[in-house]
């Protein structure tokens, strides 16, 4: 009541309600406000209940706390099943041994800042740029910020669907055949038609490497020896509220047809006997551990080993 009264007064003061249309809009926005508040309170309860229990990860309020999972899914996740099935990948694993932990963020200037995809199912473009940014920096010593929007706008011929989804492996192929990806500076992240300019291409791909599906040790091999790796997995409702700790789930699926989000593994480690991946997300820095999350390693958790890949940079 306090909120609605003060809202009514301030809106009234500012806009002077003169007709019923304005009043209707006002009532609708008050109604929307109450719906959001209710969802927020439900989520807050869910978070508190989870944090009171015994779990490897904790939840917290974040910019998604006033959304239902159904809404979140529609705006942020891949909606249709993806054709990701590298039954036999072309990544060649060594026999190890592998270091106990690796973190490409601290090995050098190899990982760009966490970005924010906004309300668009474009996670696959951020997983792609993140990986190409890193492999290029490892090869050249120069860390570029690459253009997600070029992939959203131009990579459709390779089974990608802009804000409705796509796959890093398909995006790497686009970059290879298209002969380059521009920088974020030259091709900013705002809606539009394809505006690729060949002379402004800044990063190039000479090959795409898939890791055989469900071969999580292949991912360890690649991350330990070579570079960060793009992967996809299934996000279920609790993941939206992730705050820190090692994410595990008993409800997510683990097969290629169920993945709905793509991210970038930048390292791995182990804590109290639980091995985990260090993962860069694209939901801004107010989500998770400054935009990163940890997820249990070694169990194909939520299908994270279903379709991982990385590009070979052309430098
Ligand atoms: C999967 O592949 C089929 C056949 O190539 C295509 O029609 C469909 O759009 C693809 N789905 C996605 C999500 O890319
Ligand atoms: C990699 O996997 C994708 C499916 O995710 C497939 O379309 C592509 O042909 C594969 N590329 C190679 C080099 O095997
Ligand atoms: C998926 O999970 C089930 C149940 O834990 C397990 O039996 C199966 O082997 C897993 N499949 C893959 C591909 O990881």
From TrEMBL:
Family note: Belongs to the peptidase C1 family.
GO cellular component, one term: lysosome
A Pfam family annotated for this UniProt entry: Inhibitor_I29
Sequence ranges assigned to domain Cathepsin propeptide inhibitor in this UniProt record: 12-72
GO BP annotation list: proteolysis
GO molecular function terms noted in the UniProt entry: cysteine-type endopeptidase activity
The name this protein goes by in its record: Pro-cathepsin H
Source organism, top-level taxon: Eukaryota
Keywords assigned by UniProt, alphabetized: Disulfide bond, Glycoprotein, Hydrolase, Lysosome, Protease, Signal, Thiol protease, Zymogen
